[in-house]
Amino acid sequence: MASAALIRNLRRRELSFPLLSHLRTLPEITKTSWTSSHPSSRWASFARPFSSKPAGNDVIGIDLGTTNSCVAVMEGKNPKVIENSEGARTTPSVVAFNQKGELLVGTPAKRQAVTNPTNTVFGTKRLIGRRYDDPQTQKEMKMVPYKIVKAPNGDAWVEVNGQQYSPSQIGAFILTKMKETAESYLGKSVSKAVITVPAYFNDAQRQATKDAGRIAGLDVQRIINEPTAAALSYGMNNKEGLIAVFDLGGGTFDVSILEISNGVFEVKATNGDTFLGGEDFDNSLLEFLVSEFKRTEGIDLSKDRLALQRLREAAEKAKIELSSTSQTEINLPFITADASGAKHLNITLTRSKFESLVNSLIERTRSPCKSCLKDAGYSSRNIWKIPSKGVNPDEAVALGAAIQGGILRGDVKELLLLDVTPLSLELRHLKAISSCFFSFRCFLPPRTIRTQVGVRVLQGEREMASDNKLLGEFELVGIPPAPRGMPQIEVTFDIDANGIVTVSAKDKATGKEQQITIRPPAAFLRMMIEKDETLIDIRNSADTTIYSIEKSLSEYRDKIPAEVASEIESAVAELRQAIAGDEMIGSKQSLTLLTRQFRR
Question: Has 297 been annotated as catalytic?
């Protein structure tokens, strides 16, 4: 506990880390997950905040990945990855709604993606905190079979079965599965979590991830960087030295330089690309397969969503196989058909051909690595050992997050974690030039003061203000009239341990002060959370009512008139259908109607 308290007193962020060679899977072979075919039980996980299990004080660590997710918890002094209900240690970050409106999460969702491509969403972590008009969003729209739509606030959302969901809501479905997995293992309810994010996530993306946790009913104790978390799991057993973390995940790329010494984990620098990962490797191979089929058969498969999903799965499988073989066969019978009959795809892919297809993606990792070394003040000669194979890249991040949870609980007292903010914070003057306010190498959480007038808060590394991301702006009213340039405004930037920015402005002459926390528009989040909580309440009541009525109906059917029993069964069916959707009014009305009929 002293360690965690010391970190807070220093106003520096406690965090966690991975090891040098952490090529943390391109979308990899996924394992099984959870679902329920019962329309009432599919919402059981959302009811967990109201669980009857005894409340626990455990802080679980969750790696919310683009391709796979993982959950871990501290057992004594050691972190442990928790297996899901299917016995797998990782869960595919895939969410789907089938034709019955049932929610599927993990392997069941991925398994039916070929036959239900438009209602199966994956890789939504790449959309978290992004605007619909973002060029990266527009690029992603061309590569996925599901719909990406523009939300009322301008963010990128997805549309499934006619319903629109924010990336935070999709993330919440996955986090709920992780929460359920932990509760099943621990035998008690869990409400606290440490969630990891890519090191190069900006403020809006970190907030959106925290929002996903709130929607899932979790009190997010800390948002920490993935490389930091993985390095923590690597260096927990008294390992020391300078390490580099090369974290090429399913959708994002991070590289960090860290120094481990006497239990102190200090991040020297970090860099990355939030739109580079295994999904892009799959897409490169997918585009090649589409072009080859068009060349040989004269048919363009790019508009066939069903064929594209089959090609995507085949591309991922081939990529994995080429890690251990020099060539592989891609065979997809009946991929499409024309007037002459069915068409089949049969291509032999060599490792050298695949490497040529993805070479440009590999080259994109070079610049962040060089920049990270430069920012840390080191050269490649300082990091010379071969990549370590001592840590499972699928699990290292979740293990580090669990260790961070142990620090917050006071179970781990020997570690001090220091991370940095990945992007600079800047003030925009009346001119269009940005003035760097916090260097991206500033320790978290920092606090500093500067006198300025008329500022907008920006995040990024570009010199021109218009090229950086606007986080927010503020005005301090009631300043006494004075010539331009004369008022002195004390501007305070405060970054908390989650990397969330708070800005306050104070007029030194009058003492008037205003404070804002920079975050994405919260109205939509509040609306979503309130709606979800109300739906959970209604569904819990509906489940209880249905169970009681069906039990009573089974016991006393011979004493109930046939027409009354038929009416009750119809009302039960109507209620089941109502709670399978997202309409609160319909669900509540059906519940009221059923209750009245049963009492009558």
Answer: no
